[in-house]
Structures are given as structure tokens and as C-alpha cells.
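queue> pop job 88
queue> type: inverse folding (structure -> sequence)
queue> payload:
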């Protein structure tokens, strides 16, 4: 362990922001690992009750079930249920407005993860520049025969480059993975929201006739 720490310390001061980037990125990834579980977003109980809506009484039951749950899906469906007496176009607009707000919750942290994935390799490149500056300073002062001193600068350059890539690549992969997962959930929520609107239209038309 001490050898690994000593090895990383050789990367110089740039290793500090790289370490912070890796820590923050890992925190976001772990949070998304739990918050973007399918059963947590697309709650099966809500899906079942939306599929079974056929009357006003079913809407009341669905409202009760949604109120017992939290999250983007429940909030969007509740918006439609609470406003089921309004014209269909108004319900659609309200659901779309609520959907835009809930999408921000689903994607929370992902823009920062993308930023960290882009910044980390750049920090590694910055460390490379610092390392090479040290190398050229040694050459300019003591000539090219000081292999030990030259090795220190080259080592710093290579360590920071590798660290930047090691931190940035997994975060970039995680960003695309969780972004794709969030987009799939959004499409599923839109599907069930449309299904709810269709059922509300049928119920409202039957009550008018």
C-alpha cells in the first residue's frame, strides 16, 4: 500500500485534483447504481394499477397507490390522475411539464460525471507538461547526462498521463451507460403516461354519454 502511495506521489501536485475527480466520480456512480434501479423507477405496483384503470373508482385507487410511492414515475402519473377532469390536451401539457422536471431528477449528477470524465485526461496532460518542463530545466542547467534527475521528470509526466486516463475512461463509460439507462426509463414513463391519458379519455367520454 505504501509503495502504491509513494508511486502516485511521484506524479506531483496534479495527482491531488485527479484524486478528487476520481472520488467525486465514484460517488456519483455509486449513487446512480442505486437510484437508477429499474424496480425503483418503474414501480411494478404503479404499472399494474395504470394497466387496470377502467373507471373513476380505478382512478381513485391508482391515486392512492401513487401517493404511497415516491419518485419521477409516481409524480408524473399523479399529475395525470389529479387533473383527470380537465380536457385531454391540458392533461398532456401538465404531464409534459411535470415530466421535464422529473427528467432532471433522473439525470442529476450525470452532467458533472461527463465533465469529470473530460477533465481528468486533461489534468493528466497538464501533469505531463509539468513533468517535461522539469526535464528541460534539468537539461538546461545540468546537461543531459543527469539520468536520475531526468528520470524524475519523465516519471511524473508518465504517471499523471496514465492516472488521467485511468480515472477518465471508466467515468466516461459510466456516464454513457447511466445516460442510456435514464433515457430508456424516460421512454417507458412516456409510454405509461400515454396509456393513462388514453384511459382517462375513454372514461371521460363514457361519463359524458
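queue> result:
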Amino acid at each position: 500500500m505504501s509503495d502504491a502511495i509513494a508511486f502516485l506521489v511521484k506524479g506531483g501536485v496534479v495527482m491531488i485534483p485527479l484524486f478528487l475527480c476520481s472520488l467525486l466520480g465514484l460517488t456519483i456512480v455509486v449513487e446512480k447504481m442505486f437510484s437508477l434501479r429499474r424496480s425503483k423507477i418503474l414501480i411494478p405496483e404503479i404499472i399494474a394499477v395504470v394497466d387496470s384503470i377502467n373507471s373513476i373508482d380505478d382512478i381513485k385507487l391508482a391515486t392512492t397507490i401513487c401517493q404511497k410511492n415516491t419518485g419521477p414515475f409516481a409524480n408524473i402519473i399523479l399529475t395525470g390522475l389529479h387533473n383527470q377532469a380537465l380536457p385531454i390536451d391540458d392533461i398532456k401539457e401538465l404531464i409534459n411539464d411535470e415530466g421535464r422536471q422529473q427528467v432532471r431528477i433522473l439525470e442529476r449528477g450525470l452532467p458533472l460525471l461527463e465533465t469529470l470524465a473530460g477533465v481528468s485526461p486533461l489534468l493528466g496532460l497538464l501533469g505531463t507538461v509539468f513533468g517535461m518542463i522539469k526535464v528541460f530545466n534539468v537539461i538546461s542547467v545540468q546537461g543531459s547526462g543527469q539520468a536520475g534527475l531526468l528520470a524524475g521528470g519523465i516519471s511524473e509526466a508518465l504517471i499523471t498521463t496514465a492516472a488521467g486516463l485511468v480515472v477518465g475512461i471508466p467515468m466516461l463509460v459510466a456516464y454513457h451507460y447511466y445516460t442510456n439507462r435514464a433515457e430508456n426509463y424516460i421512454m417507458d414513463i412516456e409510454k405509461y403516461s400515454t396509456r393513462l391519458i388514453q384511459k382517462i379519455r375513454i372514461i371521460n367520454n363514457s361519463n359524458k354519454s
